[in-house]
């Protein structure tokens, strides 16, 4: 019997194409793959003779975690990983992670086996288990086809190299994204001779399957955009994911600085505008502003509505057309540039979405290349002072610098305030310590800068905080894309399926050390309590221990799902009933307004104060023990603590306090492990600082994951 099968060729092809890691969830369709990996181990495949395999196998007890890990790996390295799952059911269990890698334009190679096609012993690998009849569906790849860049079936050992490399070529070309390969079990069990294995491995050099080269602007288009920006009185740049290419960030900052163009990140997935850039406007997720909010000339929405020239680069949705205070002026000149899919062909969009309907120019061009072309034209125009606008640019620069400095100063002031905690002077039978998100994030950022040797410059943050997305981007102040060495980096999933961050952290950690040297000092996951549960922590923290990928998790615990409640309030801020609401509603809403017969005697009351548990969006009255879940999954390896929440007098005592002052110290139980932390009473700031710093040290010094369950005001 041959020692090589078609599965040997498949694995070798992945490796030859640059795939170093495979995130796997094995099943009955993978016997030959498992056998070939054992063949490699027995042969001692690496240079020191240890029992290793190529690609490196990462066992994932959950398929969505596997794909999320592969996404994190690709985001950290820019290179695809493989994901191997089990027939139709494993394909379905990839779940919402399929949506995320699609929307994130993340290259990943997904392989799934399929039920055997023979049932009477005609072929090796034929059906011999009852489930193989259950899993033989009419069109397995249709489960994920609309999210894939390419779908292919493996039909024989001889055609595997070309089929796989073609798939990888598509996955790594713009618009990058996932590809799906599948094969029947008999195909992957096909025996081949050593000579055929060698010939197949060498017959298709990688160079003949190149990734598409970046596209450029036509010279006339580069000139048109450059002239428009230089001549504009109120120009604006909008981007969401330009920072996937860190060199494009340099080009954007250069253009912004040359012409004094404010730059805005809209729903970002990666750092595209450094937080320190004086012409940066910060980040927006296009959330509605509260009624009655006064106009702020430094606010991104003001820049959106008053801009006379807008350059949209690599952004799926630069504004929401139905919201007037986000919509650009009808007279604004709009230019849309995207390196992969400027027409957003995978979205069912109404007119005006993404700026396409209003644009003067829509063009496919790589951000680094296109911006470089525009910069060259701009330099020539500035030398000639085309439009005579130098004075107005200087005035604009001064306004933007003042606005940038004011925004950071306001954030510093807000982040230093701990207003929402019960002080010892008001203690009775129970105290409650809660944190504001700005205060928590400011403390986290400063702790990272203080504790890490790089002062946070080699820290990666995975942001899946959902309704707190904008605050995390603003208060963590990310400075550059991954690999830029400019400062803290931040990424998000790029999609809307929650549960990416935990698995993404494992993949990013593996990717960060894939070249033999750790790229990150520290990886931090910031999630809501809902996102934490969606992330399948029972699988992730087991993986983190097994594969030595420790990271810090900060849970923004507001007691449930805040996003559905906010969506409800955006459509139904009040509710009308034909009869008077019960007394509990009146207690929740002191300002219930009763109509005096104008609407048939109905009562109208606001829904803002309705608690999450009543709305069925809350996790009370007995919320999960998030730290306990992570610890149990890792058999005690994860260290964790709950910071804040309800504290009984036994757990919170005040010493050296007289006449109800708050000058003393507070001793509070901050973790389920029985550890206590002392902190001067400062609204809980000291407790939070100590917990965060302890968590960071656990990750850095003991190489253990740490989980901080931080209590916010409930929903």
UniProtKB/TrEMBL annotation:
Residue span(s) of domain Thiamine pyrophosphate enzyme TPP-binding: 492-565
Thiamine pyrophosphate enzyme N-terminal TPP-binding domain sequence ranges: 5-124
InterPro entries linked: DHS-like_NAD/FAD-binding_dom, THDP-binding, Thiamin_PyroP_enz_TPP-bd_dom, TPP_enz, TPP_enzyme_TPP-bd
Span list, region Disordered: 404-429
BP GO terms, sorted: isoleucine biosynthetic process; L-valine biosynthetic process
Compositionally biased region (Low complexity): 417-429
Signal peptide: none
One Pfam assignment: TPP_enzyme_N
Main localization (coarse): mitochondrion
Subcellular location: Mitochondrion
Name the UniProt record assigns to this protein: Thiamine diphosphate-binding protein
Taxonomic path: Eukaryota, Fungi, Dikarya, Basidiomycota, Agaricomycotina
């Amino acid at each position: 019997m041959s020692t090589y099968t078609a599965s040997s060729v498949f694995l070798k092809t992945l490796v030859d194409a640059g795939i170093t890691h495979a995130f796997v969830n094995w099943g009955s369709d993978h016997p030959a793959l498992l056998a070939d990996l054992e063949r490699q181990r027995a042969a001692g495949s690496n240079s020191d003779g240890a029992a290793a395999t190529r690609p490196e196998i990462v066992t994932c007890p959950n398929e969505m975690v596997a794909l999320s890990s592969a996404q994190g790996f690709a985001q950290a390295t820019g290179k695809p990983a493989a994901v191997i799952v089990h027939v139709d059911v494993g394909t379905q269990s990839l779940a919402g992670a399929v949506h995320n890698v699609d929307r994130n334009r993340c290259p990943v190679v997904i392989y799934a086996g399929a039920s055997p096609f023979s049932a009477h012993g005609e072929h090796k690998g034929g059906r011999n288990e009852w489930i193989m009849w259950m899993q033989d569906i009419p069109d397995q790849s249709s489960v994920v086809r609309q999210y894939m860049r390419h779908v292919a079936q493996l039909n024989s050992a001889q055609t595997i190299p070309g089929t796989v490399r073609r798939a990888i070529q598509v996955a790594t070309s713009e618009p990058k994204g996932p590809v799906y390969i599948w094969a029947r079990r008999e195909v992957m069990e096909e025996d081949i001779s050593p000579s055929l294995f060698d010939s197949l491995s060498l017959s298709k050099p990688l160079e003949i399957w190149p990734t598409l080269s970046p596209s450029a602007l036509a010279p006339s288009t580069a000139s048109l955009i450059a002239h428009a920006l230089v001549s504009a009185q109120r120009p604006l740049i909008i981007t969401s994911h330009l920072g996937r290419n860190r060199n494009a960030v340099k080009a954007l900052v250069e253009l912004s600085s040359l012409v004094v163009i404010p730059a805005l990140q809209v729903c970002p997935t990666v750092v595209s505008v450094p937080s320190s850039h004086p012409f940066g406007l910060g980040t927006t997720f296009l959330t509605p502003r509260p009624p009655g909010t006064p106009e702020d000339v430094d606010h991104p929405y003001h820049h959106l509505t008053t801009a006379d020239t807008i350059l949209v680069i690599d952004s799926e949705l630069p504004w929401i057309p139905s919201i007037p205070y986000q919509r650009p002026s009808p007279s604004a000149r709009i230019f849309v540039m995207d390196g992969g899919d400027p027409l957003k062909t995978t979205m069912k969009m109404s007119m005006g979405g993404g700026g396409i309907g209003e644009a003067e120019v829509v063009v496919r061009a790589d951000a680094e290349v296109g911006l470089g072309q525009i910069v060259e034209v701009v330099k020539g125009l500035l030398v000639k002072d085309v439009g005579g606008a130098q004075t107005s640019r200087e005035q604009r620069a001064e306004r933007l610098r003042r606005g940038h400095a004011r925004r950071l100063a306001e954030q510093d002031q807000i982040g230093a305030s701990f207003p929402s905690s019960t002080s010892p002077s008001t203690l009775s039978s129970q105290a409650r310590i809660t944190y504001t998100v700005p205060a928590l994030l400011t403390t986290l950022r400063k702790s990272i800068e203080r504790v890490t040797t790089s002062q946070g410059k080699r820290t990666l943050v995975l942001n899946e905080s959902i309704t707190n997305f904008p605050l995390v981007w603003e208060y963590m102040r990310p400075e550059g894309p991954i690999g830029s060495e400019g400062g803290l980096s931040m990424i998000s999933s790029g999609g809307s399926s929650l549960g990416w961050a935990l698995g993404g952290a494992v993949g990013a950690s593996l990717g960060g050390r894939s070249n033999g040297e750790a790229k990150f000092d520290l990886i931090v996951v910031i999630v809501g309590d809902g996102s934490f549960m969606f992330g399948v922590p029972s699988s992730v923290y087991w993986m983190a221990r097994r594969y030595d990928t420790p990271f810090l998790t900060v849970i923004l615990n507001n007691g449930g799902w805040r996003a559905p409640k906010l969506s409800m309030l955006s459509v139904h801020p009040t509710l009308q009933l034909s009869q008077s609401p019960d007394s509990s509603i009146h207690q929740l809403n002191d300002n219930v307004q009763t109509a005096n017969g104008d609407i048939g005697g109905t009562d109208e009351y606001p829904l803002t104060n309705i608690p999450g548990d009543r709305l069925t969006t809350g996790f009370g009255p007995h919320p999960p023990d998030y730290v306990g879940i992570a610890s149990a999954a890792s058999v005690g390896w994860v260290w964790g603590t709950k910071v804040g929440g309800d504290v009984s007098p036994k757990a919170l005592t005040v010493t050296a306090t007289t006449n109800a002052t708050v000058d003393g110290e507070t001793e509070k139980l901050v973790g389920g492990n029985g550890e206590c932390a002392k902190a001067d009473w400062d609204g809980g700031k000291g407790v939070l600082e100590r917990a965060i710093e302890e968590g960071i040290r656990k990750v850095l010094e003991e190489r253990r994951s740490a989980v901080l369950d931080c209590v916010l005001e409930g929903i």
